[in-house]
């Protein structure tokens, strides 16, 4: 059975061009880019060429400001803990938002246990931060503000440019977790007024196991990994050159094909949102109608639970993701969904549908048809649906 | 993630539905997972003649409900009272560790339904059934985080592994 992948946010396929480049890189048997001999220099050239490609993707004119990491999570940990440790003499207060990824939340929690204080601002019903709330939260001892660019559960895009302007005026460092945005929507580190920006290669069809961190020149950030002089002394450890080559090629393709990809996925998203009402009722769209990723739809289907939906759609050959508490190891409702006002029951029925370059309009119809059947089946089993429909009568 | 038996009961749940003139109804919810389960009993001569369920929950919760109804149907009230969450989990040939609480839900719903039947029969409300604590453990036993199942200290108020604040009664 061919699988229809509507779960690109969990894992994107690696593009054929990227695979080819990576296989070629493996066959090159690259030396260590830090070595001074000819083969080392070849490796260093390859490394720096990939760095230039990645820098261009975020409109960074100085590739030295890009550090390769092992994933988006490492980049985020590096940015937050690196700034906190390097600036502890200046202050120990950090501002963030209520809807951040766990990589941010848990990094901050770790710092909290080390004596740092955190202010987390709330969001509106679509999960958007009000820049004024950030301005009000900044204190004399604030050393860092961290707000994500786009949310991985709702797709909502934050007013990073405005927040960045405010943060810069207050002379505080500003980090944005842009893991689900870089390579998906246009990102310009200058326009966004960020000092640090975390991203990863897989969201733009590069390999997993490679990420990047933009660190604006002059920002005080300690490395997360101490050791050798790699990555301009910002991240020790021999580089994952094969992965980095893949990320470089993926970055070039993301730049040249971005408009086309946005148009394609946004078209599928629009079709899904337009046609959903003729297939199911009683649902809530969590995605911001205007400021959101072009490829993501978050929908809370009421009176049923998401893991059940995922398992049943899987039987039909369709892969989607859920934000139901039951589907997480921790069995807790999503903090993002609770923050935008969903209750525990509605959060349970939340599906995340993410489109990619490999999807077609026919996939949307197949999905909607299967979803209708699954929702009907599960609502027949659910005691909540009957209760709710009885109350409405 | 789930074994074949669990997936079979999830895909083809037995005894789904409502008994309009039920002799006993039990409704329980699980605040941790957001599950809800309702059990309907039809009882003749102290024997469960018919049993139906409705469940709002994950694959495991639905499979547990289905298996529970299979275990209970045809049993006497006295025998049905002895059905434990372990019986349900065992009949399903095991559940993932973090889904075991779903089997508590099933056993609880049946007991609440039986109590409801007995209350009706006695014409009065008897004392509430004491809900089992999610993670009761006797002294000296190892203690595990109820959220991520990592071993934690007996008096821990915070799980270092999953960063969850824990109640003292974990």
Q: Overview of this structure, please?
A:
The complex is a heterodimer of chains A (393) and B (170). With 393 residues, chain A is α/β, with parallel strands linked by helices. Chain A folds into 2 domains: 142 residues, Alpha-Beta Complex (Aspartate Aminotransferase, domain 1), CATH 3.90.1150; 239 residues, Type I PLP-dependent aspartate aminotransferase-like (Major domain) (Aspartate Aminotransferase, domain 2), CATH 3.40.640. Chain A is built from 13 helices and 13 strands. In chain A, the strands form 3 sheets. In chain A, strands 2-8-7-6-5-3-4 form a 7-stranded mixed sheet, with helices on both faces. In chain A, strand 3, helix 4 and strand 4 form a beta-alpha-beta unit. In chain A, helix 1 packs antiparallel against helix 8, helix 3 runs parallel beside helix 4 and helix 8 crosses helix 12. Chain A is globular. With 170 residues, chain B is an alpha+beta fold. Chain B has 2 domains: 119 residues, Sufe protein. Chain: A (Alpha-Beta Complex), CATH 3.90.1010.10; 36 residues, no CATH class. Chain B contains 5 helices and 7 strands. In chain B, strand 1 and strand 2 form a beta hairpin. In chain B, helix 1 crosses helix 2 and helix 4 packs across helix 5. Chains A and B meet through helix 4, helix 9, helix 11 and helix 13 of A and helix 1, strand 2, strand 3 and helix 2 of B.
Second CATH tier, the architecture of the largest domain in chain A: 3-Layer(aba) Sandwich
Largest sheet of chain A: 7 strands, mixed
Percent helix of chain B: 25-40%
Number of helices of chain A: 13
Instruction: Outline the low-pLDDT stretches of chain B.
Output: 131-139
Total strand count of chain B, please? 7
What radius of gyration of chain B results from the CA coordinates?
A: 17 Å
H/E topology pattern of chain B: HEEEHHHHEEEE
Residue share in β-strands of chain B: 15-25%
Helical region count of chain B? 5
In short:
Chain A contains 13 helices and 13 strands.
